[in-house]
## 1
Amino acid sequence: MRIARFVHTGSGETPAGVAWGTVEGPSGADRSALTVAAIDGHPFGPIAFTGDRWALEDVRLLSPILPSKVVAIGKNYSDHAKEMGGDAPETPLIFLKPSTSVIGDRDAIRLPPSSSEVHYEGELAAVIKRPARNVSVDDALSYVLGYCAANDVTARDQQRSDGQFTRAKGYDSFCPIGPWIVTGLDASDLRLVTRVNGQVKQDGRTSQMVHDIAHQIAFMSGVMTLLPGDVILTGTPAGVGPIVAGDTVEVEIEGIGVLSNPVVAS
Ligand code: MG
């Protein structure tokens, strides 16, 4: 199931507003062939449909989730760790991105004037479905609602100069997530491709992660309680690089779809 969150123009008795819904139509089909069926309430429990439905092209997609926090892992693909000048850490290196950094598909990544080197990092995102605290590796994936594509946008110059990640990875718009959440997906070996202006920059597989998704969730949940809707960014493969105003960056993950964001000066 593909769960989207969107702004709609209303339908019958339903006033215009924001809803979650399931995206229907063939996987990989052109968006003009897809529809969204609104669900009643939120997607964390049993799904009930309201009966309202729109063509996907007639709604505006939002970030599929509003997390209380985004927990990310650094250097989790060894080929990326090497390009950053080191090895993948034996103990997962985790950091937070603020909830205010989250944007959705087609929303603009806004470059802060304080940085002259902003990079894309295409990543698989896992969305948590129920409170997770001290969960075991064996149970960890039962806490996942589904998966999205994501971009861990980073002001690389500030990451280097600050020696920690809060500013470099925390700007508003630095965490595109989308285009929707795919449930029931085996995410252990998916192809992940990042393109800038159509040119392939990253081409990896989620099976290349040093710490797999279950280990990440178990580790993170031993540090902080993960809440429904929280987003885990699972690391980026090799090939990170700069984006500038006027670019369009796309993260495509097999079985999920394409997350596309224009880049603008703020
Ligand atoms: Mg990253």
## 2
Amino acid sequence: MTMPMDQNHQHQEKWSNGTQVVANYNFEGSNPDDLPFKKGDVITIVQSTRDPNWYKGQNEHGQEGMFPATYVQKRREVHLQAMPWYHGKIERKTAEELLNPREDGLFLIRESVNYPGDYTLSVCHQRKVEHYRIIYHKNQMTIDEETYFDNLSQLVEHYQNDADGLCTKLIRALPKKGDSFGAVRIQDFEAGGWVIQKKDLQEIELIGRGEFGDVYKGLYKNQFVAVKQLKDQDRAAQAFLKEASVMTSLRHPNLVQLIGVVLGDTIRLVTEFMGKGNLVEYLRSRGRSVIQKKDQIDFATDTCAAMEYLESKKLVHRDLAARNILINENNTAKVSDFGLAKYGDYSTEGGKFPIKWTAPEALKNNKFSNKSDMWSYGILLWELYSFGRVPYPRIPLADVVMHVEKGYRMEAPEGCPKQIYNLMLKAWNLNPADRPTFKEALAELQNLRSTTV
Ligand code: ADP
Ligand code: MG
């Protein structure tokens, strides 16, 4: 292990208080004022000093002390790389219509129709469109089976610099209209200080099954964690890493915190451990005899606080439901599951959505926003006060939207406070603009919480 104290490693950037850094080396400290740490530990900056190479920091156990800046790196958010040239699943004929006028080197990439799982590069050359199959195999892509790339962005970059066997180099991307796709680069997790070594992680037991794979209880640095394991490496990896990338930019006491990702053959997402599991199962298994009014208003407020934070960041969750709220040993509720989350107020191409939780404008026109999250929050409140019942009991799934549009609304659950039911009804306004913001809802809930015993 090389020590980073030579002159070439002068620390340049100044870190403000609250900045999180990750240790790249073990630091033993030589003085009682020092804060010893191990590689991978996360330290929060408490104070800078006159010496730009020394900071005062706090570790995860609340201990404070001095440490050299050259032993750590700043934790960085991982962002999606824009892929404006990626048009998703469109047919060859559509691609040829889109690529007009046919200037040499105008290109787009689409999902292959003939070879599911592969992609196609469509590029203009001498007024014609040439289509190249991009073979996707084991997280690698190639056109000529000689040069391989980790992702489409790298492939595009390569052929922008050099035709390398194609009819022309790629000159101009035809941008996709509307919501375009983004991709995650694995290296960015490394550069951002989010990578956990598999040997530092101990898996204890299976605790749940998710869409992408199994969830385990684990031990990392003497702390219980949840480990979400990606089962089918190939196509799901991007979606899985997108969830992780969204989480790198979020920090709030009511959001399930990302601790890191394990890369390699099996990608794993490591988050804080929430010992009491998800809210629906918690409500169903404890019921009215255990769960008090106070617990319900606490869960409602916790969830709303997290949603207000997302709203302030213009992040839309899109899958808010009691099954995606987790409870820890201290009975704090936290929002999880950012698998569908996206930035901005946008529309997007169709997908599978949880019909009973999704706002009508989102289901019909794919208009997702913080206001459609508010609709879902109303459903979540109903779940919470009905102790985990499935919403719209007795209405077949296919008929829900029709009933709702005609004005049908669920009744208040038995014993539900009037203010809470009023909030549900406001959240279920057909006009998104007439629904409250999470900020407004939070103020109401805090008020109600202060008078609930
Ligand atoms: P997916 O959204 O892919 O279906 P989830 O993230 O909802 O997967 O995880 C599935 C289940 O695993 C949850 O319902 C919960 O019971 C359990 N689980 C997930 N994350 C945690 C965690 N951080 N702590 C404790 N249990 C968890
Ligand atoms: Mg889930």
